[in-house]
Design brief:
The protein has about 300 residues and is mostly helical. It has one domain. Helices cover about 75% and strands about 0% of the residues. It has 14 helices and no strands. Helix 4 crosses helix 14 and helix 12 packs antiparallel against helix 13. The protein is globular and about 60 Å long. The chain starts with a helix and ends in a 5-residue tail after the last helix.
Length: about 300
């Protein structure tokens, strides 16, 4: 699934102006694997670092290698997150329309799905309004006059200008539809993996239950938590899956497997990607500070 997320991110990144320029070293393995390495580094950071700092590391690595504004790369990730939220909520309501939800399902499950859907819709609308309301040329003219506005204001405007540039996909309908298609495929595969995992533990979980588990657990671990959402993921899976007939042992066991499989996969690949790109955690920290300067 994470490999497909790399494919989707490549589609979204293709809307950036910097994507049209050739890489610094087109023939190197590092350039060919940049999107893949940066994405896995991000997920490694999300699972190993507090406060979901992996997304910042992911953006910094890609921004440095492609000479792109850090805020532009961050904007593509924000776009992906809101697209994920809307897709998951659409999955949830498709299940609710096709099959009745168990009456013993906690009331907050439906409330959480509604809230996440509202946040996703408002988020994408806000991104669209930011892109429409802040013409690129106007921001550029203001940011180019730091002597009048002051260095701090100039820096903020440069970041805003970069962020707006990262939303270029909003004017590229075909590319946006491709990103949406990959998002649907990504979460459909995740639901299949959950159903398969429960089946391995002796519970023939209906596909609707797998969808509900994926939707609710994904929202639950989105906030900063223990590595891989450890603890939160198990608690949510237990509450959501028992109404679908899973025992406590089956729910907790399947949740632990789903959590540790991802951790054991992304940690070595993320570290290998960092090494392949010739970087380190210390240099990434310095890159973030450098890329946040007005010159970007």
């Amino acid at each position: 699934m994470l490999s497909l997320k790399a494919v989707r991110w490549h589609v979204v990144l293709g809307s950036l102006p910097e994507a049209e320029a050739p890489p610094k070293n087109p023939q190197t393995s590092a350039d060919r694997w940049l999107v893949y390495d940066a994405l896995f580094l991000g997920y490694f950071g999300n699972y190993a670092l507090p406060a979901k700092l992996g997304e910042l590391a992911r953006s910094a690595l890609y921004a440095k290698r492609r000479d792109a504004p850090l805020s532009s790369v961050l904007a593509t990730i924000v776009f992906e997150r809101f697209l994920d939220a809307l897709t998951l909520v659409a999955f949830f309501w498709a299940v609710a329309a096709l099959a009745p939800l168990p009456s013993t399902l906690p009331d907050w499950v439906e409330l959480s799905a509604n809230l996440a859907g509202a946040v996703g819709a408002v988020g994408l609308l806000t991104l669209f309004l930011v892109w429409r309301a802040l013409p690129e040329d106007a921001i550029g003219r203001i940011a180019a006059r730091p002597d009048r506005l002051g260095r701090l204001v100039g820096k903020v405007l440069a970041v805003v200008q970069g962020f707006r540039g990262g939303l270029a996909i909003l004017q590229q309908r075909t590319r946006a539809l491709r990103a949406t298609g990959w998002t649907v495929a990504i979460w459909a595969i995740e639901c299949f993996a959950v159903a398969l995992c429960f089946q391995a533990f002796g519970h023939d979980l209906h596909w609707t239950g797998a969808v509900v588990q994926v939707v609710i657990s994904s929202f639950a671990i989105a906030a900063p938590s223990a590595p891989g959402g450890l603890g939160i993921h198990q608690w949510v899976t237990l509450l959501v899956m028992m109404p679908y007939g899973a025992t406590e042992e089956q729910a907790v066991s399947a949740s632990l497997v789903l959590t540790f499989v991802v951790i054991l996969w992304v940690v070595p690949i993320g570290l290998h990607g960092l090494w392949r790109q010739g970087s380190s955690t210390a240099s990434l920290r310095a890159d973030v500070e450098a890329l946040q300067s007005p010159a970007t």
